[in-house]
Every structure is written in C-alpha cells, then in structure tokens.
Sequence to fold (473 residues):
Amino acid sequence: MGGSMTGTLYLSATELADHYRSRSLSPVETITASLARAEAVQPRLNAFRLIDGERAHAEAQASERRWRDGAPLSPLDGVPVVIKDNQAFAGQAKASGSRAFAGGPPAAEDMPLIARLREAGAIMFARTTMPDLGWKGLNDSPLTGVTRNPWNPDMTPGGSSGGSAVAVATGCAPIGTGGDGGGSIRIPAAFTGVYGIKPTSGRLPSLYDSPAGDLVGNGPLTRTVADAALALAIMARPDPRDPFASGLTQVDFPAEARRGVAGLRVAVSANCGFAEIDVSRVGPLEAAAKVLEEAGATVVRADPPIWNARAALDVIWGAVYAAAATTMSGEQIAALDPGLVEVVKRGLMLSAAAERTAQAERTRLTHVFIRFFRDHDILLTPAMPIAPFRAEMGLNTPDAVRFPEWYDWTPYTWPFNLTKMPAASCPWGTDADGLPQAVQVVATHFREDLVLRASAVLEAAHPFEQPPDDTWR
Fold:
C-alpha cells in the first residue's frame, strides 16, 4: 500500500474505491490523511465541532480487512465522511451548533441517512460547525464561533451546512452531509465552490425531527457530481422509521447522472421573476445555459410565473423556531444566539391562523411550479445573487437595508424548500476577486435524476476547482 498522504486528499469517493480495490491505497492511509488535514484546517477555518480520530482509525482497520477479503459493504466502504452537527450519530452528542444543547447525552440511535452511511462502511470521523439550530444562512454560533471561507478566510462560507462545505472544499473528506431548510446545502456550496444537492423533501427517509420540519431536504456536499449521486443513492435506501420514503422506488442515481441532457427542455431564468441580482453573478448563468444547449438540450428564456413568497417564509420560519423553543428550558433559551431569540419572539407572537395562511400560500406556490415543470424539465438559475461577504460573529446579512434578513440575500434557494423540489448548486469557477460562483439546477418533485444529469454535463464542461492551500494557511 503506498499512496502519498497529500495525494489522497482530493481523490473522489469513486476514485478511493478503485484504489481500495486494487490495493494501491488503504482506508487506514486515507483516514490518517483526512484526520491530519482536518487538524491543519481547523485552527484557521474552524470547520469542526468534534474530530473523533480513535473511532475513525478502528473503523478504517475494519474496512481495510473487508476490502482485503473482497467483501466491501459498498463503494463507500472506507470513504471518509464528515457530518453536520444536527444529525444524530449513535454514541455522539448532537449539539446542533447550539450552547443550549452542548453537553447533552450521546444520541441513542443514528438518524436514517447516518444509518445508511454506517451500513455502507463510510467512516464518519467529524461533526461540522453550523449556526445555532441552523437558523440562518451563515456559519457562526455562540458555541463554536466563526467558520471561514477557504477561498478567502475574511469571508463567510455561508451556512447552515458551512462546516461540511469547508471540510469538503479543503480535502478533509470527499463527502459531507448537510441539511437544507432554506438553502443550507446550496448556500455554502455556492460560496465555497463545492457541489451540493438538496433532494425532494421526503426522498430520503427522515424522522422529521428538525425544527424546520418538511422544509428540510438532507443531502450531500461533494467535489464531484458522481460522488453526490453515489451518496444520494445510499442515503435514500429505506428505513422502517419512515414508512413514506420507504415506499419510493430506489433510483440508480450514479447511472442516471451519466445520461446527458439531449432532448431535455431547459428554462433559464436570471431572476425567477422577482429576485434582485448583482450583474457580476449573471455571467455563469449564460455560460452554463450555452453548455446545456450545446449538449443537446432545448434552452429557452422563461421566468416561472411566481412571486416573492418572502412573507409566507417569514411566518413559517418564525413559527418553526417558536415551536422548537416551547420544549426548551429558560436556561436553554437564554443560551441561544441572540438573533435566533429574536426569531423565536416574533414566532411566539403569531396566530395559528397566520401560520395556516402562510402554509396555504406555500401550497399555491407549489402548484404554480408543478405546472411550470410540465413544460420544462430543468430550471436553471443563479445560485446566489451576491458574492461571499465578510465573516463576522452575529452577522445575519451583509447589508441590513438592502437585505433585512438572511432570506433576502438568498432568493433562489428557499422557494424550493417551500415547494419541496430538488435543487443543486453547481460550481462555475471564480469571479474577479477569486471567490466562487455557481448556478442552480432545479427539477420537479422526485426528479433528482434530472438535476444530476444536467449537473454532470456542466461539471464536464467546467470542472470544479479547489481553493489553493496558500489562500488559507
């Protein structure tokens, strides 16, 4: 066994499996490199709440034996994975980025996607940073402080799955888990230059125990579309605790991702009919549209006939965190991020009728999008309307006048949480300041295959880049 440690860092999960199969690299060597990398990244970028090297080494040794015996559990056997801090992993405490839950008891059981990854032999060696209970699109919290962007440590990586995005971008692991209730996979993916897909809410088995409920789609952050397809296929395997997702047909996402886009109908929209976007962010959209057209898709300019449903999201967001707070002690509430406490206070002032009215608006938006996708297979939009901005403790927005709340500077992400549709942020190089750019690929419910197909074509035309080490060391 003889791969160099630094040489393993940016191998994809699929490449690692090939090396394990040929015995040119072992899971023990890989996890040793990943742990060393995580320890190097942590002081400058602060991507981790917990790194568990002892457990990881033991699991890597077991994986190495399985590969040696020709009996790996899956193509992810022995592949390093980092997990978001609000996802339950049996034997570890789940803090959800919050002082209110730090020091709690270890989780008694894995949440479904973690159980599937464990069954597949993935080595989950670290818990990643996130904002308090995932309440905003940035990645600082009173528990862990500020997480920074590897492309420029003065800037934010976005959130709330920002720690996972940073870990993947810097080569600590080829796969990170995320959860996306308003953009929390796609925002940090766009800001750090990794690929992040939010599947349809309900595609992956879930315990529906997130404060944000069915707004959330859990999914992977990766450095390649192929790795995302592989991770998604494993995460989506049935779990008896969720009878609804268990009834879905299992899709071979890796095979689907290779099918190309010939014959697909793509709608390109720079503002979805309502979003405000910086001119500098439009270029990648036009370039990506041209790539899809040259690959055989029929491309049209078409804004979905929707509206700014911010008011509905504002009510629902307040209601879900107010509901979460009703089960907390006064001491726990006092330990929350002050910005989250304000959200809770607003939510507690809402009436049940206001929340139900907002949910009805959400349903109306969903049906408008369903009709739109009868005529289009894919919707291509910018991922973010602005560039990454400064990282700072307690920040919610780069400009409180232009963008009063986090959902004002993320207009392309949360509509697809309200409608539960699958969407991915696909990297598209860097801007004049050396900061990542991205486009968003969206499809109708349970058509993650279409999102992956378009994403793979875009990746082939514009391979994803990694931040140079000297930008953050």
